[in-house]
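Sample intake sheet
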Amino acid sequence: MKKGNTIFFANKPKVRSYAAICGSKEREGVAGRYADVALADDMYGESTYEKAECKMLSNAVSLAVEKGGLTDGEVDALLSGDLLTQIISASFAARDFQFPYLGLYSACSTMSEGMLLAAALVDGGYAKNCVAATGSHFASAERQYRYPLELGCTRPPQSQWTVTGAGACVVSSQSGAVRIVNATLGRVRDWGVTDVNNMGAAMAPAAADTVIRHFKDTDAQPEDYDLIITGDLGALGSRIFKDLLWEKGYDPSRHVDCGEMIYKVVEDEFQGGSGAGCSAVMMNSYFFSKMQAGLYKRVLFAATGALLSTVSSGQGESIPCISHAVELEAGYDG
């Protein structure tokens, strides 16, 4: 069933298993205590940052499939993407598996988009088990979107730190402690922000737009959720998001942001974390673990993505953004 921009899943697909790998900086914070693998070296034994990013993503997928007690032959599709040109990390990682692959690009909202599409495939009976996955690497993203790392450029106070990490979950028609109830498709929002360092201000309107439409489509209120999780708005973007909800009459007190939470001391990281790996790591380590333990029963997860490129930024374009929301409920294992 569909109402407005929200899909209601009749069969409530389950999150069968999940896995996350985080980098050396991320291991110092909450992600390091819950991730399956916390790296001491962000090169991950590879010769380039891009190869390290690909390896993290491939291993996160393998871990999620293994933890779900599945073989490659039991996985119907991998839905994945990343931030690099032509989603090379996801596409190259897909070489390691025998199951079909659907490449996605939704920037930092790729995790929630992948979960949404995986749930639709499973709910519709087209698949039994799908893997949704994404990741990012600080060094590969920084030199693609901003400056050569060797320049050692000073970071402005509105900037965020791209998370080094990857996460994956198996969305299944079978058992799982968390189920996907519904999902709201995002719309592209562009409020004219041109500063490529100010991702939070660019993405906050898209997150607010999707979350508010979700409330209307589902007849829900913020207090109906234990948490309303955004992907990587950071400290500044989170405050803008809260202001936008207040303006529409919604209480934002249940809101938390993966970018604000992932690092040990936000003040040292300016606005906090960003990148496709930010929400992927936090959801597939900390949040799913807490839901499986029964601490959180009902959660709305709305990852956020800035759909820019080096070409568009060089031409003076503003930054179009998007957010997809997935509603999750815990306490189910059948």
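Comment: The longest helix spans residues 199-218. The chain has a mean pLDDT of 92.
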